[in-house]
Amino acid sequence: MTFPLKCLLAGLAAITGCATHSPSTSTTPLPRFPSDAFITQRAILTARGKQFTLNGYLSLSAAGGKRLLVTENFGNVLADVLVKPDHSVHVMRSSPMFRPAWIKRFVASDLECIFGNDTKQKCHVETLSPTHFSVKRFWYTLDLRIVEVKPGRQPGGMFDETKAIQ
After folding, report:
1. CB of 56 within 8 A of CB of 73?
2. The predicted structure's pLDDT at residue 146
3. What residue ranges in the chain does DSSP mark as E strands?
4. What is residue 141's predicted lDDT score, i.e. its pLDDT?
5. What span, in angstroms and rounded, lies between the C-alpha atoms of 71 and 54?
6. pLDDT means per 10 residues in the chain (166 residues)?
7. Given CB 3.0 to 4.6 Å as the disulfide criterion, which of 65, 79, 124, 135 pairs with 142?
8. β pairing state of 65-71 and 77-83
């Protein structure tokens, strides 16, 4: 093979790249969900070498904000957080596994990255499919899957920062 032909083939290979598909990483995922909806989620949290299975119940309201309830498999509430449209974060309930400062710093931030439209913060979210996300931070990874989306208006009381869910 002549030198010019080798250069041409190398150039074509460099331009076309390889045929494997890599998931899209987005620093600001586009809104994929209705502005008013109830979303059921399943997640695996890996932190410090241990895995925890979690359930999430998220109420979205264009007027009220986002209310996320994180539970363990037996239904115990691990975190309850409300993020208002002005991006103020209200920890409604915490647990020994999810302390209030951790909920404010990480849970609310990850919630805004996946379901919000705040482009000011740096997101650590990899979009694997429209219903599958991976959040990778220094000491934890969250594998989040959307199980069900029920569009519709949510009860206004869900977005009152003075009321915790019992």
Report:
1. no
2. 96
3. 24-25, 37-47, 50-61, 65-71, 77-83, 89-93, 125-129, 132-136, 140-151
4. 95
5. 6
6. 43 40 45 87 95 96 95 94 94 94 94 77 86 92 96 92 71
7. 135
8. antiparallel
Query: Other C-beta atoms within 10 Å of 104: how many?
Result: 16
Single-letter residue type at 27? T
Percent of the chain as helix, strand, coil, to the nearest 5: 20, 40, 40
- Tallying the residues shown for the chain, one arrives at 166
Distance CA 23, CA 11 (A): 25
pLDDT for the residue 140: 94
For residue 32, the model assigns a pLDDT of 73
Return d(Cα 55, Cα 59) in angstroms, integer: 14
pTM for this predicted structure: 0.78
Sheet containing 77-83, strands listed edge to edge, beginning at the edge strand earlier in sequence: 24-25, 125-129, 132-136, 140-151, 37-47, 50-61, 65-71, 77-83, 89-93
Contact yes or no for 77/87 (Cβ under 8 A)? no
Residue corresponding to tokens 């083939």? 9
User: Residue 101: CA atoms inside 13 Å, Cβ hemisphere, count?
Assistant: 0
What gap in Å lies between CA 46 and CA 51, rounded to an integer?
A: 4
pLDDT at 25 (0 to 100): 46
Distance between CA atoms of residues 46 and 106, nearest Å: 14
